[in-house]
Amino acid sequence: MDATTQQWSDTARRFAEETLIPWELEAEMNAGRLPEEVAKAHKAEAIRLGFSAMDVAPSYGGLGLRNVDQVAVWEQLGRVTNALCWCFSEPHQWMFEACSDDQLERYILPLMRGERKECYAITERESGSDVVIESTAERVAGGYRVSGEKWFVTSANLADYLFVQARLTDGAHAGEDVLLLVDSDAEGIEVLRTPPFSHTFDHHHQEIAFHDVFVPEQNLIGTEGGGMGYTHAWFRRERLMIAARNCGAAARLIEEATAFAKARAVDGGVLMDKQLVQAMLADSVTELWAARLMTFETAAAHDRGEDVKALHTRCSLAKLYASEAAGRIADRAVQIFGGRGYMRENCAERFTRELRVDRIWEGASELQRLIIARQLAKRGLDEM
């Protein structure tokens, strides 16, 4: 890290440890929720520190940070359980490339200021490794009529608008996809179900139906048929930041398990003296360093402006390795803590549940392996 990246890392580390982590148990024992005044204070502080403006160009009032700086921030925020680090929204660079000036003013820039909250309605019932978009967008006077059902709409319960992907039924681009901005209070939107998940987050993953929801033409992002390209840009970023958060989680797990092992008295000594425990910690540190190097190098490759297909593959590599390594590290930490590691008040127990989904969402580990293998076949090792 250079001095700038280290400064951002230190800032995020203090925010995580001094502001968010003290509230983890409160959230865990209250369905992920914090007192309203506390949640508002967390959001205000995150915005004050600049986290919501990291990927926004200075011309729009943002900070325009490098990807390595943003990865450093999200690595430290990944130390926090219960999704408390999701206390702010942030516009992403692809939005400024895709959205009109009007859309930026109404939907995107308000995210940076904390005035609006977004969610992504992309996944459908039959989605998996293959992209399945059965939701439809019918061209009508002045816009589109959207019908269909979306699953796993993360943060839908807190958002006031959605990015919705649908398939055109008519017109010159019939059969192709569109990406639309849809207000949450639009007539015809129905929350079908709010299923409970393993983790204790206040951000729910709802199933939502769209019944002939009218979306004005000015809410079309980019062009008809271009929605998937924007979705791929979003996936690249999310996969990289998932890798970063997993590195932060792994670091905290190693630190807390090490501190416990050094203090835990066993057999006239301490647990840290046991070679099997040493081996678990050594393996964990090795995997963390590998994950960090992979993640930060992928961020640096973005900053260097390398080939986008190679970047797509590298984001898959980073997410695959970091998420699977973090899962192994969490499991070892629980084992080191013993019965204490199975208590919800222990971060190892919470991370064991929370990190598991990182091997599934934004592309499961199996999909990442397919992306990597296909690029190897097409481009060769040196071009990846």
Plain-language structure description:
This protein is of the alpha+beta class. The protein folds into 3 domains: 3-91, Acyl-CoA dehydrogenase/oxidase, N-terminal domain (Butyryl-Coa Dehydrogenase, subunit A, domain 1, Orthogonal Bundle); 119-221, Butyryl-CoA Dehydrogenase, subunit A, domain 2, CATH 2.40.110.10; 228-383, Butyryl-CoA Dehydrogenase, subunit A, domain 3, CATH 1.20.140.10. It contains 11 helices and 9 strands. The protein has helices at 3-20, 24-28, 36-49, 67-77, 93-98, 101-113, 227-263, 275-303, 308-337, 347-354, 365-379, and strands at residues 118-121, 136-140, 143-154, 161-168, 177-183, 189-193, 205-216, 265-266, 269-270. Strands 1, 2, 3, 4, 5, 6 and 7 form a 7-stranded mixed β-sheet that branches. The protein has a two-stranded antiparallel sheet with strand order 8-9. It is globular, with a radius of gyration of 21 Å. The two termini are 24 Å apart. The mean pLDDT is 96.
List the helices and strands and how they pair.
Elements: H1 3-20, H2 24-28, H3 36-49, H4 67-77, H5 93-98, H6 101-113, E1 118-121, E2 136-140, E3 143-154, E4 161-168, E5 177-183, E6 189-193, E7 205-216, H7 227-263, E8 265-266, E9 269-270, H8 275-303, H9 308-337, H10 347-354, H11 365-379
